Amino acid sequence: MCRLRLVPLAVILSLAMTFSLACASQEKGGAKSVGANVKPTAPVMAMAQNPTPPANAKKVTSVGGGKLAVNTSNSGGDVDFLWAEKIDIDGDGEVDDTQILYDSEDGVLYFYAEDDVPCKGGGTASAGLLICLNCKGNADNKPVGSGWCAVYLDEGECGAEAAGIYGCRFDAKGIVTGWAVATIDAKNDEIVIAAGN
């Protein structure tokens, strides 16, 4: 004859809590690492104090390329200074052929390079990288050296679930926030992170 054994409620609750914590831990540990492993370098951050275009800088109205092209002109006759330098902008230890644009009206520096960008989860992605840095005396009084990064990733690159622009922000010490789907607001020299991120 089978007997029904009653399990105390405290035991059931304890088992449920353990299962819940285990699931949460698995989800956290198994979360995809999305975005680029990019940190603005010391030479890049130093330029925020005194951006000085060289004598051979070109007068232009935009910077970047493809989906990361940004129009920096504030009015019909407004031009900015663009030049090229070899500089490590992403912190991977490799020198990049970099476009640098100084928008003197807004007080920001843009850096753009196309190269193998390091991914957060390891490996690299062949992508464009755009960095915007707030300079001393910037129009919006943002902390000098703070700014944002953006990359255009194809589906599967650097953990991207879909092709598009992914971005992050960093503070005046270069500490980067998490990466997420984003759009570029060129008018305000800002990146807009998708809601919920």
What level of helicity do the residues show? 10-25%
Q: Pairing-aware structural class of the strands and helices? A: mainly beta
Roughly what is the average pLDDT, rounded to an integer?
A: 84
User: Outline, from the CA principal axes?
Assistant: globular
What is the count of DSSP helices, taking H or I runs of 4+ residues? 2
Strand arrangement, major sheet: 1-4-5-6-7-8-9-10-11
The N- and C-terminal alpha carbons lie at a distance of 58 Å
Number of DSSP E strands: 11
Question: Major beta sheet, specifics?
Answer: 9 strands, antiparallel
Low-confidence stretches: 10-31
Bin the strand percentage. 35-45%
Tell me the series of helices and strands, N- to C-terminal: HHEEEEEEEEEEE
Radius of gyration: 23 Å
- Count up the domains: 1
List keywords for this structure.
197 residues, mainly beta, two-stranded antiparallel sheet, globular
Give me the secondary-structure topology.
Blueprint (H helix, E strand, L loop, with lengths): L8 H21 L12 H5 L11 E3 L1 E2 L6 E2 L8 E8 L8 E8 L4 E11 L5 E11 L12 E7 L10 E7 L9 E6 L4 E4 L4
Antiparallel strand pairs: 1-4, 2-3, 4-5, 5-6, 6-7, 7-8, 8-9, 9-10, 10-11
Question: What does this molecule look like?
Answer:
By secondary structure, this protein is mostly beta strands. It is built from two helices and eleven strands, in the order ααβββββββββββ. It has one domain. The protein has helices spanning 9-29, 42-46; strands at residues 58-60, 62-63, 70-71, 80-87, 96-103, 108-118, 124-134, 147-153, 164-170, 180-185, 190-193. The strands form two sheets. The protein has a nine-stranded antiparallel sheet with strand order 1-4-5-6-7-8-9-10-11. A two-stranded antiparallel ribbon has the order 2-3. The protein is globular and about 45 Å long.
